[in-house]
Amino acid sequence: MQLNAAQKLIQDHLLSGEMKPGEEIGLKIDQTLTQDATGTMVMLELEAMGIDKVKTEASAQYVDHNLIQEDFRNADDHLFLRSAAQKFGIYYSRPGNGVSHPVHMQQLARPGKTLLGSDSHTCANGCMGMLAMGAGGIDVTMAMSGEPYYVKMPRVMGIELTGKLPDWVSAKDVILEMLRRHGVKGGVGKILEYYGPGVKELSAMDRHVIANMGAELGATATVFPSDKEIKHFLKTQGREDEWIELKADDGADYDEHEEIDLSALEPLIAKPSSPGNVVPVMEVAGEDIYQSYIGSSANPGYRDFAIASEIVKGKQIANGTSLDINPTSRQLLEQLVENGHIANLLAAGARMHQAGCNGCIGMGQAPATGKNSLRTTPRNFPGRSGTREDSVFLCSPETAAASVLTGVITDPRTLDMSYPKIKEPTTFSTKGMLEVPPKDNSQIDLEKGPNITTIPDFDPIEDNFDVPILLKMNDNISTDEILAGGSRVLPYRSNIQKISTFAFEIIDDDYYETAMKQRDDGGHMVVAGFNYGQGSSREHAALAPRYLGLKVVLVKDFARIHLQNLINFGILPLTFVNEEDYDLVRQEDVLEFRQIHQTIQNQHTFDIKLKGTERTIAVQHDLTKRHLEILLAGGIINWIKEKQ
C-alpha cells in the first residue's frame, strides 16, 4: 500500500485504533514542547501525578511568552520552571533564548518523530518531516508520563506546490492564500501535507512559516517531506547525522486535493479581525498605518528579518510610525547583528525588542487606539494585541517593511528598488541554547513563588440539573476572547482563582460577577456558533470558566484543541443537531438536563427542554468511551486518581 508522508508518521507511532478518518487513534509521542504560559500548569500536573522523570525521548520547556518582569510573578515562575525542568528531566530554554517553535526546530526537531506541544503553533515543526501537534497542557502532561496521545484520525489534504515564488512574494503569502481559499475552518479534522516540485523551492524556515499557520486553518497538523533542504538545515545546526528522508510513496493518494502555483501568487494581507479575512494587498493599499511588527513564530527565519533590513537600508521610516523588531531566537539575532542587519534596521528608526513572543501574545507593543497595525504574526483576533479595539492586519515581512517606509499599506512590488537577494548563513551558533537536565534529580526541589497555587478540585457533573445561558455568542469565538493573553492576564497562569476574573471579559464585562453569583446556585452554560474555541491551545480557557461554574457548552461546532480541553476539565460539550435551533435559544434561557449520565453513555443524540416551555432542542455529542469516562469523573485529573 502506497502511503503519504502523514500516514507513514502515524503508522510508525500507532498504538491503538486504525487509520480510518474519524476513528480515535492512540499515538506514541517522542518529543514534547511546553512554554511558560502553559508550562507552569503542566509542571504542577506532573508533580500531582507523582512523576519522577518524563518518559519521552526529549521534552523541552521554553520561556518565551511571559518575559515582561514588571513585578515578581513572571520572574518567580521562570525559577519554578527551571527547577521543574531539572527535577523532571526536561531541557530548559531560559528567557531571551527565543520563541519555542523556531528554537525547538533548531535544537531538537528530528524528521520521522512525533511532537506534542502545549501551544497551538507546535504544528510549525511539521516543516521538518515531523508529526507535530498542539494540545492542551494536560494532554501533554500525559504524553510526558508515557501515555499515548489520543486524537481522531484526520483526513489528509494533499497540497501540490508547483512553480517558484516571484519577487516580493514569500512563504507568508502561501499560507495566506490557503486561508483565502479555505478560511479558518478549512483544516478542521485534517492534516495538511505539502508535496510537489514547488516544495524544493522553499527553505526549511519558509516551510516553518507555512506549517505554523496551519493552526489558523484549524488543522490537526501540517506535514512537509524531509528532503535535502531539511538535511542542509540540520547541517547548519551541527545535527546532520539526525536526518532521515521522509516523503510520500509514488502513487500515494490523499483524502482531499489542492494545488497552488507559487509563481501565480501576489502579496496578500489578512484584514482585521480574522486570519481568514484575506485580500490582495493592492485592495487595501493607501490606508494609513501606525505600526509594522516583524517577527513571531509565523515569520521566524533569518531571511524574514534580513529582507526587511535590506528594504529599509539607507532610508527612514515614515514619521508617526513604529517599526517593531521582535527577534525570534538568540541564535538568529547573533547572525543578524554580525551581518549588519540589526544596524540597518536601527538606523532606519526601528525599535528592538528581546527575543520572544512579545506583542504576538499581547505582551508589549500594543498599538495605539484606532490605528492600523501591520504584523507578521499568525493571529489578529480581537484584542489579542493588547489593545481592546485593535485593528491588526497580517502580512509578509516585505509588505510590513514597504508600508512602514511610506506610512500607508503598500504593495511591496510598487517600491522603486530591486528585490533584495538574501544570502543565508551556512552555520549557526548553538551554544547555551538549551540547559540539559541533571542525571541525578534526587536533590532537586521545586521553587514555588507565592503566585503559584494548586489546581482546584472539581466535582463530577450531576445527573439532573437546570442551568441558565449566561452568554450567547456568534461564530469563530477564539480562546483569546474566552480568556485573553497579554501582560495583564498571563502572569496569573498558575493562579486559577485570579486568572478566572478575566474570563470572557472581551465579550461581556459582567461575566465574572454573574458567573460567581450563579456558581453556588447550580452553575451555568454558554451557547455559540461555528468554530468555537479557535486559536490558542491554552487550557485556561476551559479551566477558568470551569472554576466559575461552567457546566455545558452548546455550539454549532468546536475547534479541536478547545473541545478536548473542555472534556479534560469535565465540561459537557454539545452541538446542535439542527443548526437553526441556535436561533431558538436566548441568553438567560434556562435549559433542563435530566438523567444525563445514562443519556450521554447510551445516546449520541437527545433532547433538552427549555424550562417553562414545551419546547425542546435536539443536541448531540461525538464523545468516545474514554471521553465519557473522563467527563463523568469530573475531568482527567479525577479520572487519573480513580485509576490509581
From TrEMBL:
Entry EC no(s): 4.2.1.3
Q: Which residues form the Aconitase A/isopropylmalate dehydratase small subunit swivel domain?
A: 509-578
Q: What are the protein's UniProt keywords?
A: Iron, Iron-sulfur, Lyase, Metal-binding
Tell me if Iron-sulfur is a UniProt keyword of this record. yes
Instruction: Give the Gene Ontology MF terms in alphabetical order.
Output: aconitate hydratase activity
Q: Which reaction does it catalyse?
A: citrate = D-threo-isocitrate
- The coiled-coil regions, if any, are none
Stretches assigned to the Aconitase/3-isopropylmalate dehydratase large subunit alpha/beta/alpha domain: 8-284, 286-407
Establish whether keyword Magnesium is in the entry. no
UniProt cross-references to InterPro entries, sorted A to Z: Acnase/IPM_dHydase_lsu_aba_1/3 (IPR015931), Acoase/IPM_deHydtase_lsu_aba (IPR001030), Aconitase/3IPM_dehydase_swvl (IPR015928), Aconitase/IPM_isomerase (IPR050926), Aconitase_4Fe-4S_dom (IPR036008), Aconitase_put (IPR006250), AconitaseA/IPMdHydase_ssu_swvl (IPR000573)
Region annotated Disordered sits at: 371-390
- Quaternary structure note: Monomer.
* UniProt protein name: aconitate hydratase
Query: Which species does this protein come from?
Result: Oceanobacillus aidingensis
State the taxonomy lineage. Answer: Bacteria, Bacillati, Bacillota, Bacilli, Bacillales
